[in-house]
Amino acid sequence: MAVRWLRSRLFVQNAARLSRGLPCAAPRSMVVRMLETACLKPVAKHNNLWVNGSRLIRGRSVSAPTKLFFASAAASLAAPIAAFAAKPEDWQMTLQPAATEIMSSMIWFEQYTLWMMAAVTVFVAALLVYVCFKFRAEANPVPSRTTHNSTIEVIWTAVPVLILVAIAFPSFQLLNAQYAPPREAELTVKAIGNQWYWGYEYQVEAAPITFEANLLKEEERAKYGKEDVAAYPRLLAVDNEMVVPVDTVVRVLVTAADVLHAFAMPAFGIKSDAVPGRLNETWFLAEKEGLYYGQCSEICGKDHSMMPIAIRVVSKADYASWATAAATDVSLANKTLMASLKMKNAVATAD
Q1: Is the dihedral of CA 325, 326, 332, 335 positive or negative?
Q2: Residue pLDDT, tens place only, 88-106
Q3: Which residues contact 87 (CB under 8 A, 6 or more apart)?
């Protein structure tokens, strides 16, 4: 924490000096870039923020949003940046990269059964070619009248049974793991499907956190600071992501307010139907920070394809700062979180 505090202190000092037109220890271009990415806007319009940062260092009073911003930055500046994310890719032929142990097991099981099916397919195809060539009419003018063979019958009964057993054991283990979290849930979020957006309710002891996540419109990218199409892809990005801490068991209660929906996140290996009047439960434990995308996976009307799911996994320190701010203003909390993550990117790039 001392290193994080020192780096944030030096950054704020340099930023304050730069805002007053004075020379700074760090390269001017680097500080400008860090200021711009943190503010989400050009530096010239936000000199007051950095003056407040300087006031904070000297122990003077600052506004609550400014104090929250610098507290989040100090907790995360020295942390390694998480650039990991999962979303559909053009011409993708494999599953999305796994962000949970359950999804890693699913990918292993998929590859395990794929190679097994490939071996069976190749064997059967080779056997058919052999039979067609070996027992063609020209080679066998007098066909065999064999009606059964005990050895072959034992083999073609035993081998499929062994194959099924080889598939069943890891399959049952994976199925059991999906319904057995490693520990008690540390965070519970209720996901409510609506035509055509998702609503989230965080069940926390402090003030409740409730918000809606709508598809991000192209004309609103600048408003939310999400101009980067690679990070916020079209038809998958939302205005307010569901934010959760890394290495935390998150219980998701899934329901719907109108028609059938389905809450699906491929990178987490979860999919749960959202049924009006009924609560379904699933869980995940994200092991990597990043931004993950899913979609409603149940046809729910004309805008079914406009109902994406976005989950942002952050450090526990960033989540605590976000949750504190989101209790009163989700929009401000999201902007503060994005600023903190952009600062981490800028620091990592500078280093």
Answers
A1: positive
A2: 888 888 899 999 999 999 9
A3: 96, 233, 236, 292, 293
- Burial class of residue 307 in the structure, from the number of CB atoms within 10 Å of its CB (0-12 exposed, 13-18 middle, 19+ buried): buried
- Cβ neighbours of residue 40 closer than 8 Å, sequence gap 6 or more: 225, 335, 338, 339, 342
The tens digit of pLDDT for each residue in 207-262 reads: 789 999 999 999 999 999 999 998 999 999 999 999 999 999 999 999 999 999 99
Cα distances (Å, whole numbers) of residue 88 to 22, 229, 295, 297, 299: 47, 13, 11, 14, 19
In this structure, the strands spanning 270-274 and 261-265 are: antiparallel
- Cα–Cα distances (Å) from 344 to 97, 170, 313, 320, in that order, read 23, 40, 15, 17
Residue at 111: amino acid letter: Q
Q: For the CA atoms of 257, 261, 267, 270, what is the dihedral angle to 10 degrees?
A: 80
Q: Are 311 and 242 in contact (CB under 8 A)?
A: yes
Mention every residue, 6+ apart, whose C-beta is less than 8 A from residue 66: 49, 52, 53, 56
Nearest residue to 76 (alpha-carbon basis) of 28, 8, 19, 135: 8
Alpha carbon distances (Å) from 83 to 170, 230, 269, 312: 32, 12, 20, 11
298: which 2 tokens? 């149940």
- Please give the model's pTM, rounded to 2 decimal places: 0.73
Cross-strand pairs, 243: 312
Q: What three-state secondary structure class fits 274? A: strand
